UniProtKB/TrEMBL annotation:
It comes from the Bacteria. This is Uncharacterized protein. It holds the Pfam family YjbH.
Length: 697
């Protein structure tokens, strides 16, 4: 129980937070990130919500506590965090915070949060917190916490008035993680916490707080000496990219934090470094175009000219034809992030090269040799709308989207691009969350090649050789009742120092309208080789897609040579995809996994117009949590970074990072490259509509 003075002291803070002051919320206040890497004061949370879509990565430490946290503003009011901590052990945890009310007039912002609700429970706590801007430079927060946030000067849970079961919380017991302990949420003693932010100037902010976390585990196991509930700190943030903090915490220790902040909706190169597109060629101005392509020789010559023009701007012409007053062009966008931007650039090229009598352009963007869609544009609309206000929206309204199944255009182009491409580049591979060491890394050389037999039939492979690193220093591999399909992944290439990463022959096709196909054979990934076949049904104008994949694979030898082990399996899934047309895409896969278990994987991604993608997934199968082991079930976060966002020059390359709580055998799926949905959906109406703002760029 708390003493009266402390209760009254904090009650004053809470009342002030809910008081009738009418200072407007300061929209220009930058979010303060805590030692937990979440919005708040120092160790305590606040009700502040970062900017929608904001990403942050925080490294913080004090005493023997180290925390690395990845935080994403999933929605304008929903904040999600994944944390990896070093205490007396290594620990992974997930947080959620939802802002129930925004600050408005005399009303404070109010948020409810769950900390470590899907981890081992070391930081397990729940809270409700209010934040109020008292003056242009002062912001106050006060809240009520349970679990660890109710462990100092706690009192009987006020929710006991609703149900007396809220007054009791089960004893603290670190589990294997991965399961939400619903019987603990908002149960047991509650305690007050609060804090103050004082913005000294635009760059510096002083912070102070009263913490309700008793740090009982750290005091018992690591000798942490907690003398005071008061923490003080100073934060420096000279720009929107990083934040540094220094603190005096719990009356004994100095703490520091560093946060990198990324706004995926913006870029250091908002207009890009790509060259300006061609202006629209207006026929009435006497452009230098052929009068007609009414003979085979004229069409062949015209296609040759078009192919050369398109190649100068990063496009590969596959074929074209003129029928009546309609010109149909099939091409591959090899440079620009979005098919919408590529579409606009190609259309402007056609306005210069197409015969004067052509009134309609039918553009068919392709990837992996398969046509994705057929977009019909009026040449007159191009001439009319180029410099018109709201030109992008008007152009989209007048475009007609259709399926591109069927024969290729009559006249092909002899593309001078070499069919065989190869390269040598450095690589760095990081392995996270090993039980004995939080991170291992290799640095080496990768040699890769690609041989295009046909645009839709490609042989490709990669070989890696480690130069330095410690990924071969394999830690303990925990026992399991399941086949070792993932848990010994660090053993691959560990002793040999390298080997064949992949070597595949992939064939893509369009068997019928709205249908796409893929067959891949070879060493499909580092751990498995075999045959993979996939079929996708995806109408151009539908947000829904359905797919099926079947694989027969065998486990590869650890030396990454040409041999196989004696484990083989038939695996496969049926899949449903849904594009909500607001940047969110959902995917559900149901089927058999590599260890022979049956179940389903659900993934939700948020993709921004510039190519950034952040998603989360989880898999539940018929493997019991105890047999699965630590983590209880497979789950994680996927971040995809577009290379052009970093470099500013046009490229379709991306770098993907998977943050998994722990890689084990249950729910393991084959990692085959080039699955159809990722190839197809960018060229369909929903995704192009989201990105149509780039049409005139």
């Amino acid at each position: 129980m708390v003493n009266v003075n402390k209760k009254c002291f904090f009650a004053g803070i809470a009342i002030a937070a809910f008081s009738g002051t009418t200072v407007a919320a300061q929209d220009d206040w930058r979010t303060n990130y805590t030692l937990f890497g979440t919005p708040g004061i120092i160790d305590m949370p606040s009700a502040v919500a970062p900017a929608d879509g904001e990403l942050s990565s925080t490294l913080a430490m004090f005493a023997d506590n180290w925390r690395t946290t990845f935080t994403f503003q999933v929605l304008p009011r929903l904040t999600g965090s994944f944390r990896y901590s070093q205490l007396d052990t290594y620990d992974r945890s997930f947080d959620f915070q939802y802002q129930i009310l925004t600050e408005n007039g005399s009303r404070p912002a109010v948020a409810i949060g769950l900390r470590d609700f899907l981890g081992t429970g070391i930081y397990s706590s729940e809270y409700i917190v209010a934040t109020k801007t008292l003056s242009p430079n002062v912001r106050l927060s006060g809240g009520l916490g349970w679990g660890r946030l109710g462990s100092l000067n706690g009192f009987t849970n006020p929710l006991g008035v609703v149900d007396e079961r809220f007054e009791t919380r089960s004893s603290f017991d670190i589990g294997k993680g991965g399961t939400a302990r619903l019987d603990q949420f908002f149960r047991g003693d509650a305690a007050f916490f609060g804090g103050l932010e004082w913005r000294i100037n635009e760059d510096w902010t002083a912070v102070a707080e009263y913490s309700s976390d008793a740090y009982e585990r750290e005091t018992t196991l690591s000798g942490f000496n907690r003398r005071s509930p008061l923490n003080f700190g100073l934060k420096w943030q000279p720009n929107d990219v990083y934040q540094l903090g220094a603190y005096y915490v719990y009356g004994t220790d100095i703490g520091v934090s560093a946060t990198i902040i990324i706004d995926p909706k913006s870029s250091n190169f908002p207009s890009g470094l790509e060259g300006a597109p061609m202006p629209v060629g207006v026929r009435a101005e006497g452009i230098a175009a052929a009068a007609s392509w009414d003979t085979p020789q004229a069409q062949t010559s015209g296609v040759g000219t078009l192919g050369q023009v398109m190649a100068t701007d990063g496009f590969r012409l596959l074929g074209a034809e003129v029928v009546g007053n309609t010109m149909r062009v099939q091409y591959e966008n090899t440079s620009y992030r979005t098919e919408a931007q590529g579409l606009g650039r190609v259309a402007r090229m056609l306005s210069h090269v197409a015969p004067i009598n052509v009134d309609t352009f039918v553009l068919e963007p392709t990837q992996r040799g398969i046509a994705l869609s057929a977009v019909t544009l009026s040449r007159s609309d191009l001439e009319e709308l180029e410099n018109t206000p709201n030109a992008a929206a008007l152009s989209y309204d007048r475009a007609i989207f259709g399926d591109a199944a069927g024969p290729a255009p009559a006249i092909g182009w002899d593309d001078p691009t070499p069919a065989f491409l190869w390269g040598i580049s450095p690589y760095m591979e990081v392995a996270l969350f090993d039980g004995d060491q939080p991170a291992r890394a290799d640095l080496g050389i990768e040699a890769s090649f690609q041989y295009e037999i046909q645009p839709n039939l490609v042989l490709a492979g990669a070989y890696r050789q480690r130069i330095v690193g410690n990924r071969d220093e394999i830690g303990a591999i925990s026992a399991s009742t399941l086949p070792a399909v993932r848990r010994d992944g660090l053993r691959y290439g560990a002793e040999s120092g390298g080997g064949i990463e992949n070597l595949t022959l992939a064939w893509y096709g369009r068997p019928a309208p709205n249908l796409y196909s893929r067959v891949s054979v070879g060493y499909l990934e580092r751990m498995f080789g075999g045959v993979s076949a996939e079929l996708l049904w995806k109408p151009v104008d539908s947000p829904l897609a359905l797919g099926a994949e079947v694989n027969y694979v065998a486990q590869r030898d650890f030396d990454l040579g040409f041999g196989f082990q004696d484990y083989d399996i038939m695996t496969g899934h049926v899949s449903a995809y849904y594009d909500f047309n607001n940047g969110f895409q959902a995917q559900l896969d149901v089927g058999r996994y590599l260890a022979g278990d049956y179940g389903a994987t659900f993934q939700l991604d948020r993709e921004f117009d510039n190519g950034w993608k952040v998603g989360a997934y989880f898999t539940l199968t018929d493997v019991p949590f105890d047999d699965f082991g630590e983590g209880s079930f497979d789950k994680g976060i996927v971040v995809e970074i577009p290379t052009d966002w970093v470099l500013g020059r046009p490229t379709r390359d991306t770098t993907a990072t998977r943050l998994s709580s722990l890689e084990r055998d249950g729910g393991a799926r084959l990692r085959v490259d080039g699955r159809l949905y990722e190839i197809v959906h960018d060229g369909h109406q929903g995704n192009m509509g989201d990105q149509w703002g780039r049409y005139w760029r």
